[in-house]
Design goal:
alpha+beta; 3 domains; 12 helices
Length: about 400
């Protein structure tokens, strides 16, 4: 897979670069000796953060699951046709994985691209597009023409690192480029660059939590002699073993243990610092939610959710309109430019926009009663086969009066 002549960063260790900007919380953790700042924020370190992994995998996975269709003609009379986007990488990734990788590149790096492979025709020429194998964002860059170069098609050149270590330069006829949100119209804004401080803080907190649980004091309590003057040094192992045997485990539930020593149990409780640290980790989930647009409850943060039921359902539907549609539009418009006009690429959101069965049934009945759809169209929306005579719209016109009868009867 991916043997398309483009270098991918397989098993390449990310260079460790000291950061010039330390987030306040991360700096505090470093001062407390809980974490060592210095590792750069990379795609690998970002995906090790559970809320970020969940957010980007949810967006990329949801969009990858949408049917990707090519249509021709005007919007009122369009019809589906075949195109390279039916299977963009026939010798590599399946369509779902191709779309998922594309959106991961856009989300994390702010850009994605693919080398255009064309069909070979008799006589040595090239025909239409045969495949679009994706290139990792670290293996290519977009640039303008140098003084000694002519202006390329599309105004940009793309320097791509190939699998053999050489660099090839393409214009838009040889490389398909999709930037994310851009400040200069050329380079997409990278999430791991703009969110570096927030992500560095979250990474530091994750490492601090791991160090706390592996090296911190995680005990239920400790015992001391009831009489401060009593010496239990010789009996402490026996006392500890006796307490553990008589108090630990489900089998001791409800029992009344008896000890042959007078001791005092001092519970080990969470300190205010530990409580603040746990609260900061909850805040980090909300921070990832702000950067990605994914609601906290979809990142498994439900403590502050009070609008369950219909409220959460509406939030899920709003995710499609306010977040997913933005990323889908980038693929649709850049993909449509790659096709011969008047063809256009469309991601079908019908599956995501489907409401509960009760609401969908009410909507179908309302459209049928209003004469907007036929019975067969209504049945198709429910995944049912057509029936004979089901292609007629409902009409409210009164039936004709019989000949010779009273029209007012």
């Amino acid at each position: 897979m991916y043997d398309h002549g483009v270098r991918w960063p397989w098993q390449r260790r990310d260079a460790v670069q000291p950061s010039a900007h330390y987030a306040p919380v991360a700096s505090f953790l470093e001062m407390q000796g809980l974490v060592d700042l210095g590792a750069a924020v990379t795609e690998q370190s970002v995906l090790q953060l559970s809320p970020m992994y969940r957010a980007v995998s949810l967006i990329a996975g949801q969009l990858a699951g949408l049917p990707m269709r090519t249509f021709t003609g005007d919007p009122m009379e369009r019809r589906a046709v075949a195109s390279v986007f039916d299977d963009p990488d026939p010798d590599g990734q399946v369509p779902f994985a191709w779309k998922e990788t594309l959106f991961l590149h856009l989300l994390i790096h702010g850009r994605t691209g693919a080398v255009i492979q064309r069909k070979q025709i008799d006589g040595g020429g090239e025909g239409g597009i045969a495949a679009l194998p994706l290139a990792h964002p670290s293996t290519f860059r977009a640039r303008g023409p140098r003084p000694y170069e002519k202006v390329p098609a599309g105004g940009l050149y793309f320097d791509v690192m190939m699998a053999d270590g050489t660099t090839k330069t393409f214009d838009r006829n040889g490389f398909w480029y999709v930037p994310g949100m851009s400040l200069n119209g050329r380079d997409g804004v990278s999430l791991i660059e703009k969110a570096r401080l927030s992500l560095q803080t979250t990474t530091a907190a994750d490492r601090a939590a791991g160090r706390m649980f592996s090296h911190g004091a995680m005990i239920s309590g400790f015992i001391t002699p009831a009489d401060p003057d009593e010496d239990i040094e010789d009996d402490r192992e026996q006392i500890s073993r006796e307490i553990n045997n008589k108090f630990e485990g489900w089998q001791n539930t409800g029992r009344i243990p008896i000890l042959n020593q007078r001791v005092k149990l001092n519970p080990w409780t969470m300190t205010a610092r530990d409580a603040e640290f746990l609260a900061s980790r909850q805040f980090q989930v909300e921070e990832v939610s702000r950067w990605t647009g994914v609601p906290p409850h979809l990142l498994m943060q439900t403590e502050k959710q009070t609008s369950w039921g219909t409220g959460v359902e509406e939030q899920n539907r709003a995710l499609g309109r306010s977040v997913l549609d933005t990323w889908a539009t980038r693929l649709e418009e850049h993909g449509s430019r790659l096709l011969a006009r008047p063809r256009s690429l469309v991601l079908d959101f019908a599956k995501l926009e489907r409401s509960s069965p009760e609401r969908e049934q009410d909507s179908i009945r309302s459209d049928w009663d209003a004469g907007l759809i036929t019975r067969n169209e209504a049945r198709a929306r429910r995944g049912m086969p057509p029936i004979e005579g089901g292609d007629v719209l409902k009409t409210d016109a009164p039936a004709a009066a019989p000949i010779g009868g009273d029209p007012n009867a």
